[in-house]
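Lab notes, practical 5.
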Amino acid sequence: MTLKKLLALAASAVLVLCVSAGAQEPGPPLDAIFGEEIDVRVVNVEVVVEDRAGNRVHGLEADDFRIFVDGFPVEVDYFTEILENRAIEASGREAPPGVGEGDGVPTNYVVFVDDDHTLVQFRRPVLRGLADQLDELGARDQVAVVVQSGSRLQMLSPFTADRERTRDALRQLDTGKGFRGQLGSPSLPARQAAMARRGPGAAGSDVRVGLVQGDDVGGPFPSLSTGSGLSTALNDLPGAATARLPGLRIPSLGAEAEVDRNLRELEFSVTAVSSTMQALDVPEGRKALLLLAGDWPRGNFPAQGLNIGMRSDREVLDRLIDTANLLGYTIYPIDEQSNEPSMARWGNFRYMARDTGGEAFLAGSNLEALRNASRDTANYYWLGFVPHYRRDDRAHDVQVQVQRSDLRVRSRRGYLDLSRRAEADMETQGRLLFPGGELTQGEPVLQVEIGAAKRTGVRKMRVPVTVYIPIGHFPLVPYQDQFFARLELRFAVVDRNGQQAPIPLIPINLRGRNRPAPDAVMPYNATLTLRRKPHDLVVAIHDPVSDQTISARTRVSFR
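Output from the prediction step:
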């Protein structure tokens, strides 16, 4: 389709472009223009080797190890031994790229505290232990502190070797003034109501359940319609559909809502941690996540789609594990100092630690968490290999073996072959959950205009949005006598309860005979259908060719 009106900030700019969203216009195939990116990223595998007595084993060479991906052997391309945080030169192998320059290998710790699921009095001894043990870290080791509170992420301290700055961040969580733990969580009223429903009279009954896609029970599921003379079906979201399940026996509709709320809380917490790992710019060295998760919801949850089938909490945790393995993080879950240990919670902590090559610090060891993690990351073998990337979002199993039967190994158990779309979605997710300008320094300003919201349907609103795409900012690829650009537009929303919607991708393909001026912009209109409650909205434009992303954050509400 030809866009008849195109705005430019510079009056002298003359630009004639064609824009298409979704469907392609006749012309050369875009893949032939933009080509194909070849991935040469290294999958890092940090391997702990112990004898039967639990003592670390040193002096092994690359040929003593074998790596299997989905059961098939792969070549060990990079290898070094880390001995007391120093890299030992290996014969015949290069050190992995993440080791950095010099023989000293620092460790970068992310302390992540879920304020919404921890209790101030229970986490306080753990936080004070972390603060007391900071001086035992290496001089080049850095620590960042991130908290999830009120269904938002806050960076209390970026990566720094300034121990006092890190202690100040931990004190904010220790006092409980700004972060009140579960007592200040926005989901507390729902939890209290759920506890009340568990009293007498909450017996099960035979009911007929009608589920409508997009209703409050199933999640936000916003729909969009777009314009600027364009009409595009986004995200292939089907229209409202109703299905009835005769004779479905459940304890009560309130209990069903409680299960659904628990699932959403767990998914949000997993997304928050994953977004943190994705968003942080980590210095050279090893990456470790100290995760003070608290009482994350546990159990089995209905699978998406009319409550048919179930999925366990560990299936949700797999997303976090995949992200950690993709980005090279080792997870060290830390339990609170509670008098009532939970075997189910401890099992989940061990599950996350095992599959990322870490350890779970539970009763007793949680008070020594930083000291224990520092010791664990001081001596290990750092292996690396380059897989054949397909960008298909598949998780691949990784197993490391040593050629001696008297030794045992501990390492991450997989990696995720993430698609480019999924990577861009994760980046947009991080910009949504991190308020402020933490992730947008150096980017041009993206102009977004929000129109007046209008009531539609039951508890829904339609919100017009105009995005002024700075097409002059992104590189255009010349081909024959035209210029081409392929951009991706995304909308991400979250409400105050942490409920999010799937992130739609709107492809925008541009072409024209003239190169646009550096300050040229193009208006793009869209209409968002959301629940009638306040939302944070992030609009992101991504260029897959240059891997640049610009975004704007705003508030949407019904007045």
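Observations recorded by the TA: The chain is about 20% helix and 35% strand. Confidence is low (pLDDT under 50) at residues 1-20, 22-27, 194-251.
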